[in-house]
């Protein structure tokens, strides 16, 4: 039953979403592909390791796991969905580490599936391209190191795992950096640990904690810049967050209820799980205290709470729940109810067609992924990117009056239209088939965009059928939008003037379309 619930839920999400995934899903993979295609493998790794600590917002752009790994896979087989596959694989690894940490026998692994099926957010983000759900990976690894008694007598293996656990947080969603607390609290709370291993845990946690503040990102600064609120305002925001959970906007709340029940079955050794669960819940509530209202509380930022809840539930089938067997039937009942609730919400979501009207042609394409400001998809933009890919697959070359300064590529909610094409084609085919020009070739990610100074020589070479035959070129320009960056507005005019000065522009789509397709004809 657990496997069926999870399987049906995942398939429903993937089929319903189709190609309409948010641009954030693939920006890391695109940057990984660019790094690996424009420098040596070691230079790419070195750049990622440096920028993961020095770039202001490194996730997911500078990460071995979310950038280089899907980027490397794309070099072997160009495909838009490697980022999604990697996220799913890493989530399965995380679940495996949870089983090891909690001591759940493989025959009882179904309880983890049942808990997964009770969380709509975990199901959705496990098949998302941007790996927010990987924030728990270093926590799961740290919990295994701290809670597995077998590792306390294997010094070398524990040392190697601690080194790995110290590096992994820099390559996942940034709340993964709080995994250092697992080592510190484990050293304080877990009994019957050799003194040397306890010291190793403390050192690992202290080094991780020091690095967080030595290399703060903008997301870390979001917590360090908190200001206290008055009692009334604080209580109002806590109530608002509670309403978000009770109405299943953040997630189906029954997994949280099950975690609270699981706390009744904890041994002394498992108290660490309850403390870390409270820490993650406290961090989420702290975000609610920022700004004018708790708008920064979103389903993806609730994932760490969800995963600690899942771990607490799993612990009831490990060493922590053996002395209070009455807890297990209660947990199973809550999880079954959570699965039913989640399936109903999923069915309601996937049965509702995407809203595509003249005034609204965007939305969220997975349930339990809503955000107040981002992670939305503009359906017409995705259709355009698919048209571009189909043109290149048919043997045509693209001349695009479009670059990273267009409003569709804004920092808050980029559509990543060029990145989609880049991953679909691979680096070499993109360079040979797509000609886009602009002052900026990088915005978090970098792409093979030609500098503006190369536009005139490129256009002048076309009549001689170099580098490409004029008849094989199809052009597109994007209509002006209110919030286009000024530099792109100027570059668009410069590009169109340069084209019209050399060729006749033969329109193949209405001139008032957002993306206007044209051919290069003889000069009038």
Descriptive notes:
With 524 residues, this protein is of the alpha/beta class. It folds into 2 domains: 2-26 and 80-350, no CATH class; 377-521, no CATH class. It is 55% helix and 6% strand. The chain contains 22 helices and 9 strands. It has a 5-stranded mixed β-sheet, sandwiched between helices. It has a two-stranded antiparallel sheet with strand order 1-2. Helix 4 (64-76) packs across helix 5 (82-102). The longest helix has 24 residues, at 327-350. The mean pLDDT is 91.
Outline of the structure:
This protein is α/β, with parallel strands linked by helices and 524 residues long. It has 2 domains: 2-26 and 80-350, no CATH class; 377-521, no CATH class. It is built from 22 helices and 9 strands.
Radius of gyration: 25 Å
* Count of helical stretches: 22
Strand content: 5-15%
The end-to-end distance, rounded to whole angstroms, is: 69 Å
Query: What share of residues is helical?
Result: 40-55%
Number of domains: 2
Q: Give unreliable regions as ranges.
A: none
Tell me, rounded to a whole number, the average pLDDT.
91
Helix/strand/pairing category: alpha/beta
Largest sheet: 5 strands, mixed
Instruction: Report the strand count.
Output: 9
Shape: elongated
For the biggest β-sheet, the strand order reads 4-3-7-9-8
Any chance you could write out the topology, listing elements then pairs?
Blueprint lengths: L1 H16 L9 H12 L2 H14 L9 H13 L5 H21 L7 H8 L2 H7 L10 H11 L7 H13 L12 H10 L5 H20 L3 H7 L6 H16 L7 H9 L8 H18 L14 H13 L11 H24 L11 E2 L13 E2 H15 L3 E5 L15 H9 L1 H7 E3 L5 E2 L1 E2 L8 H7 L11 E6 L7 H17 L1 E4 L7 E7 L3
Parallel strand pairs: 3-4, 3-7
Antiparallel strand pairs: 1-2, 5-6, 7-9, 8-9
Helix pairs in contact: 1-6, 1-17, 2-4, 2-19, 4-5, 5-8, 6-16, 6-17, 8-9, 8-10, 9-11, 10-11, 10-15, 14-16, 14-17, 15-16, 18-19, 19-20, 21-22
């Amino acid at each position: 039953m657990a496997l069926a619930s999870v399987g049906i839920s995942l398939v429903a999400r993937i089929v319903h979403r189709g190609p309409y995934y948010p641009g954030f899903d693939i920006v890391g993979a695109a940057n990984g592909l660019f790094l690996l295609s424009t420098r040596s493998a070691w230079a790419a790794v070195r750049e990622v390791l440096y920028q993961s600590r020095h770039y202001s917002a490194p996730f997911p752009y500078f990460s071995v796991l979310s950038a280089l790994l899907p980027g490397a896979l794309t070099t072997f087989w160009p495909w838009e969905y490697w980022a999604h596959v990697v996220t799913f694989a890493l989530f399965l690894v995380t679940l495996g580490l949870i089983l090891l940490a909690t001591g759940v026998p493989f025959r009882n692994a179904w309880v983890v599936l049942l808990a997964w099926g009770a969380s709509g957010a975990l199901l959705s983000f496990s098949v998302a391209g941007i790996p927010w759900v990987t924030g728990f990976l270093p926590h799961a690894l740290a919990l295994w190191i701290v809670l597995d008694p077998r590792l306390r007598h294997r010094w070398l293996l524990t040392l190697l795992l601690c080194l790995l656990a110290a590096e992994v947080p820099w390559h996942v969603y940034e709340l993964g950096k709080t995994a250092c607390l697992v080592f510190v609290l484990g050293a304080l709370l877990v009994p019957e640990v050799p003194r040397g291993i306890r010291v190793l845990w403390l050192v690992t946690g202290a080094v991780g904690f020091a690095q967080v503040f030595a290399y703060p990102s903008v997301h870390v600064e979001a917590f360090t810049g908190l200001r206290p609120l008055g009692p009334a305002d604080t209580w109002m925001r806590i109530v608002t967050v509670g309403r978000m959970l009770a109405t299943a906007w953040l997630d189906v709340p029954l997994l949280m209820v099950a975690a609270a029940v699981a706390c009744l079955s904890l041994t002394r050794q498992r108290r660490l799980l309850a403390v870390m669960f409270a820490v993650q819940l406290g961090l989420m509530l702290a975000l609610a205290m920022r700004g004018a209202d708790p708008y920064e509380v979103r389903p993806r930022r609730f994932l760490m709470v969800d995963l600690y809840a899942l771990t607490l539930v799993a612990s009831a089938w490990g060493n922590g729940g053996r002395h209070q067997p009455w807890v297990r039937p209660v947990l199973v009942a809550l999880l079954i109810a959570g699965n039913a609730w989640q399936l109903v919400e999923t069915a309601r979501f996937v049965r509702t067609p995407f809203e595509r009207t003249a005034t609204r042609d965007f939305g969220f394409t997975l349930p339990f992924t809503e955000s107040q400001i981002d992670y939305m998809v503009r359906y017409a933009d995705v259709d355009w990117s698919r048209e571009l890919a189909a043109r290149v697959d048919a043997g045509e070359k693209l001349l695009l009056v479009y670059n990273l300064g267009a409003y569709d590529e804004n920092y808050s909610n980029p559509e990543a239209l060029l990145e989609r094409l880049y991953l679909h084609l691979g680096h070499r085919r993109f360079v040979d088939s797509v000609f886009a020009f602009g002052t900026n070739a990088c915005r978090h990610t970098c792409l093979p965009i030609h500098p503006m100074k190369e536009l005139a020589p490129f256009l002048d070479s076309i009549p001689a059928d170099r580098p490409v035959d004029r008849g094989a070129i199809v052009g597109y320009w994007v209509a002006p939008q209110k919030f286009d960056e000024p530099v792109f507005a100027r570059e668009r005019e410069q590009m169109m003037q340069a084209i019209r000065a050399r060729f006749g522009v033969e329109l193949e789509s209405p001139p008032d379309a957002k993306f206007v397709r044209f051919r290069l004809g003889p000069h009038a």
